[in-house]
Amino acid sequence: MSDKRPESMQRITTAAQATAFIDEQTAALRRQIGDSKVLLALSGGVDSSVVAALLVKAVGKQLVCVHVNHGLLRKGEPEQVVKVFRDELGADLVYVDAVDRFLDKLAGVADPEQKRKIIGKEFIDVFAEEAAKLDGIKFLAQGTIYPDILESGPVKSHHNVGGLPPEMHFELVEPIKLLFKDEVRVVGRALGLPEGMVERQPFPGPGLGVRCPGAITRDRLEAVREADAILREEFAAAGLAGKVWQYFTVVPDFKSTGVKDGLRSFEWPVIIRAVNTRDAMTATVEEIPYGLLRTIVARITAEVPGVNRVLYDLTPKPSATIEYE
Ligand code: XMP
Fold first, then answer.
1. E strand intervals along the chain
2. What pLDDT shows up at residue 164?
3. Ligand 1 within 6 A of CB of 202
């Protein structure tokens, strides 16, 4: 497959068009892969999930998925990957619990670029170690999509498995590399992936790590994860989940005084961020209704240990970026 989308290629918007794409791709994948084995780093994001589902359909157990839990995923994500791919689709899935390994490496590291580097390098190391344990892998599948090619060349920058050690030679399998994001979602739906997975908001490669600014500690990371889960639940209940482009929580590394049950507390604030954008280059802030904000504040301060205050970030991009690091 060339890296250029042909002018004649129709935009995939309907289930029928998605089914035609799936049929064509499964046939092409069977031709390309033959009876060899193919490896995929499955993060659970839309792109890698759609590639996994396509490959399961095309070559079944010849696909080996590796899901690395680096401890920076959102609440429920690793469990969902195992449930959907291993339990429901019957995929051969290697689940790697690398939580301690990542968090130990990140302990005490406050510099954002250093944190990103550690996460990226550790991810490649863990993935390469898992790959080395497997026999007969000839292909490496990647969830590259067309904007990745247009923007940054053919290799996906986050979870960058293009950086595998040189002795690990794999041929690339990139079945959705000519699709735009909205088309990937249509294909994912036609493949029967759950709506929550297909409609997932963008999530950075370094995950919650960039939402726990400064040196990550396990308790503050847990506060980010719990607050994020509450925010997502309340956005879904209010019908905002598919409407707001990206929304999340941040727990900065400072404490302020508060009072709970008549006792003074000294705890973290949770910052809520909810933005809309077309291309992530600029962004506007979602005007969350006050009633919903009050519910979120009440739940977070009652349910998240170590938190006594909730702030709403009203800053567009520019001057702020979407993430905090
Ligand atoms: P910023 O913070 O630069 O974010 O306004 C723009 C968009 O990019 C996402 N983002 C990342 N995605 N790896 C990723 O895969 C990263 O290191 C990364 N940093 C930011 C961010 O979530 C937002 O959607």
1. 37-41, 63-69, 92-97, 137-141, 171-173, 246-250, 256-260, 263-276, 284-285, 307-312
2. 84
3. yes
